[in-house]
Write a structure and sequence with these properties.
Elements (H helix, E strand, L loop, with lengths): L8 E2 L9 H14 L2 H15 L5 H14 L4 H5 L13 H21 L2 H24 L6 H24 L15 H20 L7 H25 L16 E2 L11 H16 L3 H30 L1 H9 L15
Antiparallel strand pairs: 1-2
Membrane topology: Multi-pass membrane protein
Catalytic activity: [protein]-C-terminal S-[(2E,6E)-farnesyl]-L-cysteine + S-adenosyl-L-methionine = [protein]-C-terminal S-[(2E,6E)-farnesyl]-L-cysteine methyl ester + S-adenosyl-L-homocysteine
EC number: 2.1.1.100
């Protein structure tokens, strides 16, 4: 479950902003000497460098995510062909409609996007589709209802990682920003939780119907997600999923917002989010495993990063460290001699 996150510092990006009138004149000049493809490429680069608004990848992801979420409309479309309370997969018309929907969304994305943008779009659409399916499952009285809540939490987490990066730091934006291919350990942890839920639901279904416990887990998930995204927004353009090991001349220590509450708010958010998913699923085995693995990872990560932060900012960070906790239980960070 290794996470690659930035140090809490801020880049100065004023030199990246370009005057709109200059952009317009330069575009007009290019249009007289280059074909449309060259101009489009220049405009794409200018938009990405300007840092103003959402870059084209971000816009493509939003549209694709919404297309995926629109799966929630299918039960209304198929209601005249299915029995009351029957799910999409529970009837032949529902399964056919679902297959046609998936094919239609993919067809639309193929028409709208090519190459890299299609790769962005198909991932965002998949996450939107998963979110929509989670909603459909979560609002029913099915034994899988709490798993539907979990699917919504997981899919939104991964999509919002990409979207916030597109808003804050488009220069670092890539397919990896979805964190879908985070690590083998992360993937195995997720699969383990799915297997535990399925096995325990089969053997002891009452364990998966403790609604009050799942609600507590859902609130933990919402808290962790909100805190992590607040940390990303507070860090601004300097948030990066790749650890920064060298100090730039423009780096300054960020101590405002959620960074005034915790020294590592994005870690705190992910810690409680990950544990909350297992409380939500009522997975006792994975709850223990997630807690121990996450705590051990963040203990090592915080100490490793704080060595660099002290090297970068010296006494300024030492004073900040003295006044603000990490936010992680029983993790105080690197020890500093008085």
């Amino acid at each position: 479950m290794e996470e690659k996150l930035p140090y809490p510092h801020r880049f100065c990006d004023s030199d990246m902003r370009e005057d709109q009138s200059t952009d317009k004149q330069l575009t007009q000049s290019l249009s007289r000497t280059a074909d449309r493809k060259c101009v489009a490429g220049f405009l794409f680069a200018s938009t990405k460098m300007a840092g103003g608004g959402l870059v084209v990848e971000g816009r493509a992801s939003v549209l694709s995510f919404v297309l995926g979420v629109s799966v929630i409309s299918l039960p209304f479309i198929t209601s005249r062909y299915t029995e009351p309370g029957q799910t999409l997969l529970g009837s032949a018309p529902g399964r056919i409609t679902l297959a046609l929907f998936v094919a239609a969304v993919n067809g639309v994305l193929l028409l709208l996007y090519r190459a890299h943008l299609y790769q962005v779009a198909i991932r965002a659409a998949f996450l939107g589709f998963a979110f929509g399916c989670g909603l459909l499952i979560g609002i029913t009285q099915s034994p899988w209802r709490h798993f539907g809540w979990y699917i919504c939490s997981l899919s939104f987490f991964h999509y919002s990682e990409y979207l916030i990066t597109a808003l804050n730091n488009p220069k670092s934006l890539s397919l990896d920003s979805f964190l879908l291919n985070h690590s083998v350990e992360y993937t195995m942890a997720a699969i383990s939780s799915w297997l535990e839920f399925t096995i325990e639901k089969t053997i002891y279904p009452e364990l998966k119907q403790i609604t009050w416990l799942s609600v507590i887990g859902l609130f933990m998930v919402l808290f962790g997600e909100s805190l992590r995204k607040s940390a990303m927004l507070t860090a601004g353009s300097n948030f990066n999923h790749i650890v920064q090991n060298e100090k730039s001349e423009t780096h300054t220590l960020v101590t405002s917002g959620v960074y005034s509450w915790f020294r590592h708010p994005s870690y705190v958010g992910w810690f409680y989010w990950s544990i909350g998913t297992q409380v939500l699923l009522c997975n006792p085995v994975c709850l223990i495993g997630y807690t121990l693995a996450s705590w051990r990872f963040f203990r090592e990560r915080v100490e490793e990063e704080e060595f660099s932060l002290i090297h970068f900012f010296g006494q300024e960070y030492v004073d900040y460290k003295r006044n603000v906790p990490t936010g992680l239980p029983f993790i105080s960070g690197v020890k500093v001699e008085p």
